[in-house]
Amino acid sequence: MRIMAELARCQDNQMVWFLVPTKILCSQQLEYLSQYMPAVSMRMLTGDDEVDCWSNQDLWDTALRSMKVVFSTHAVLADALTHGFVSLRRLALIVFDEAHHCMKSHPGNRIMRDFYHVAKRENVTLPSILGLTASVDVAKISELERNLDATCRAPLVQRQELMRYVPQRGLTEILYTQGYHGTMIPPSYLDTLEETVTKLCEHSKSEGYSIPGELLKVPTRARVIWYQLGAWALRHFLTKSLQGFAQYIADDIKTSSSRSCNKRLLALRTVLNSIVESPGIYLQSPGSISNKAERLLSFLKERSHPDFSGVIFVRERVTAYVLSALLDAHPWTRNAFRCAPCVSNAARSESWAQYDAMSVERNEDVVPQFRRSLKNLLIATSVLEEGIDLPACHLVISYDSPENIISFMQRQGRARKDVSDFVVMRSKDDESISASLKQFSALGTQMQDMCLDHQRSNPVLEMDDEQLENVDLQLRLHTGFASSLPKMIASVVADTRKLFAVRY
């Protein structure tokens, strides 16, 4: 592998820095490389280590002492370079996993723009750059290559053998109608809730006290839940919100000296109470769930079997929480699936975290449970789109349509079984989604063709084994480790659409 080759020839004080977009992917890549190279000292630097508080060189020197491979998000290395705690001279190789992010003001591009390219103009010794991605917008390939000082390429050597390990994925559309049995009118109490929260927000600004942002988002999120999932899901969301909100009010009243503030908070609690205490909503009764949710549940019911393993992608964190609860409660699905939401916690403020009644297990726990079949259906946001290895997954459902080609290809790539299905839900009235899916598929083929054209720039020919020892291998660590070398290599680059951005 490229990392092994770089470590074998670099200076003793140099290391490899492996950059990933998310903490969950950081943990995965560290685990896999540690298995493959057990003798190499490695570590991960994340927010759990409080790296943003490391304000002196001694802390960094201690953390990096004797380390040969370091894993982190792009922001960690960008900040360390900015404050001078790490220099490019110490880096033999920088690996950009999910390299398509290195655009514009992204921390990965800041590393290249503010440090690498500056050093290059000064003729300073530079680290090698290896970028890995399965999805590049064709229109942005040239810009990405300039940013990474690299050429996007797909593997040609042993390509026929690698093709045998590429999952065969079918594309299916699930059509639904908007609304609930012909009506699109939301419950009137949503207007009351929105009005109460708006008054609370205005009052907090005029009186100078603060309200958690999550609290102010309740009306908007409630409408999203009603529109996407239906009345039962809305009731569940507001009940959970009330649990956390009631505790917040109790704590705030104890410490607040503002009677008017407390009055506004209590008014909001009264509105939520009136909603939650209204007559119950029973699943399977008309209007209890949206037609979109009903079509999803019907599809899952048909696909249920003992070895089921799938992922449902949604756009909003709150949708992931509530859809998971709906699947756990509905008679069609509650005994067939072991569900769990998988979302990013980055957007949740620490001040509100203790009141968040919908908080769930950490992603670091949920994904391993899925791999061990303790969970067999994840409801995930984009945090699970990129690079996460789910070998047993045979069904990926996009509950909200992919927003761009990157999302389309990344979601599709999570279906890792030999025969897998990628399902996209769309409204019967929205033909634009079908057109977009066809366009995404065509762009994916065009992207692959461009990256297989090694004559496009810096031509490279296929070489025999003796010549290969002088060439850096560009292999994507993507799945587990097989017992035989050919199969292991195929697992490492199981998706032949992986692109390699390599500096020569």
From TrEMBL:
PROSITE patterns: HELICASE_ATP_BIND_1, HELICASE_CTER. Pfam families: DEAD (PF00270), Helicase_C (PF00271). This is Dicer-like protein 2. Residues 1-154 form the Helicase ATP-binding domain. One of its GO terms (molecular function) is nucleic acid binding. The keyword Metal-binding does not apply. It comes from Penicillium frequentans. SUPFAM superfamilies: P-loop containing nucleoside triphosphate hydrolases (SSF52540). InterPro entries: DEAD/DEAH_box_helicase_dom, Helicase_ATP-bd, Helicase_C-like, P-loop_NTPase, RLR_Helicase. Keywords: ATP-binding, Nucleotide-binding. The lineage of its organism: Eukaryota, Fungi, Dikarya, Ascomycota, Pezizomycotina. Residues 292-467 form the Helicase C-terminal domain. GO terms for cellular component: cytoplasm.
